[in-house]
Amino acid sequence: MSYLIDPTTTKSWxxxxxxFTEIESTHLNELFxxxxxxxxxxxxxxxxxxxxxxxxxxxxxxxxYLIDLTxxxxxxxxxxxxxxxxxxxNTENRAVLHTALRDFTDEKINIDGEYIFPMIESAxxxxxxxxxxxxxxxxxxxxxKPITDIVNIGIGxxxxxxxxxxxxxxxxxxxxxxxxxxxxxxxxxxxTLSNLNPETTLFIVVSKTFTTIETLTNATTCxxxxxxxxxxxxxxxxxxxxxxNEKAVxxxxxxxxxxxxxxxxxxxxxxxxxxxxxxxxxxxGYENFEAFLQGANTADKHFKNTKYSKNIPxxxxxxxxxYTNFFNTKAEVVLPYADSLNKLxxxxxxxxxxxxxxxxxxxxxxxxxxxxxxxxxxxxTNAQHSFMQHIHQGTQMIPADFIGFTESLxxxxxxxxILMANFYAQSQALQQGKSKExxxxxxxxxxxxxxxxxxxxxxVFEGNRPSNSFLFDKLTPYNLGMLIALYxxxxxxxxxxxxxxxxxxxxxxxxxxxxxxx
Length: 518
Known about the structure:
Elements: H1 11-23, H2 28-34, H3 38-41, E1 43-46, E2 49-52, H4 60-72, H5 75-84, E3 110-111, E4 114-115, H6 116-135, E5 149-153, H7 160-168, E6 177-181, H8 186-193, E7 201-206, H9 213-227, H10 235-238, E8 239-243, H11 246-252, E9 259-261, H12 278-284, H13 286-305, H14 312-325, E10 331-336, H15 344-356, E11 374-377, H16 388-393, E12 400-405, H17 413-432, H18 436-445, H19 452-455, E13 467-472, H20 477-498, H21 506-517
Parallel strand pairs: 5-6, 5-7, 7-8, 8-9, 10-11, 10-12, 12-13
Antiparallel strand pairs: 1-2, 2-13, 3-4
Helix pairs in contact: 1-4, 4-14, 7-12, 12-13, 13-20, 14-20, 15-20
């Protein structure tokens, strides 16, 4: 690979270090004052998305140096290898082809002697056909009743992605009720089961190896609950699996024809674009599921074909590198102004922190520079009544992503206007802050003359806090697919620049191994 490069050894890194000392104390307000067209110059549009990164502590020169860094660390070759199916997951000797799951062209990608697109198309057809049978009530349970409830049993990438999407796209749901069981907490399992009827419930057991202790324990509990009312023969109508271990699935009691495929060239936290997304397809219908894939594919093509100065996920990643490695920030906050996207933050925590929480580079050497950030956040104005105090006036600088939509799904324009007023105001407040003079004048105007000296220091806001704004016209399956894929490519780009493998997760295994031995 031509991208096994320590970024700190590059010429552009040295230039960025020098440049940082020149721009570190520059306030965003100064940049906006000097640059009349700054918002236009630092805004990118991709179909229905407007990505505004003007409120970042960068100049055009900063961007040039950061793009030079991508060239020196081999990003172009890495992107090419990603989409061609090269085994860029070097520690596990695997390709990383979640992008292929949402590609609708017939790319001739061969993995270990097999062309993958016929396999992908076959899996899509299986998902579409099965979804149609369940939703249309053609598929009957063991007593002849149609399925009313879907229970997805998985953990990590086999749970968090589908659960987040199903909740986010609740506006598009059909008649089916969808439930998720992941935690091995038995109380949580029985709480879910207590509200279900075995005659009308379908269980989807999702595990690539079909050996994951949490998933298998929960699946066995659900099967035993089901068999209290039904016979072994009835399992065929109520249990399906998403797995690559056919033998173990059949041994569990699930019919071979009820198995949906998973492949080694797709990592768990990137897998909801394929059969792991079966619960999504069932919840919102296959047509909407395919729109979700198409939106992600649009982001893929943008990432693959757009020059870096106009490339949204590349810019997202470069800004993160700039703050992480030069401003020494430790965290990033994600703020979706849509309550239905509440689980997006948890999903992105897994995506970023499991992928780039690494201290050893691709060459096996210990890393001397910071990689990854702590990701946290919350939806809408809820965050403004909890941790936003820290973002505005705390001692740490924490870059923020604001995600908003110009249209309300249910048409409540009054609520939505207030929501979006907060969306715009928060990013503006982070940038502009509030000076001593402004605070003094405001307090004087309100007649608080006696309190000015006491309260003045506490009401001053430094501002100069960076943020990005993602603005879509509406929350749709297509737009959500695009947004998530953009974040995936941000993770990938960061990993290449930092020379780490974003696609293994050995840190996940240690605790599991110790739990087995305790």
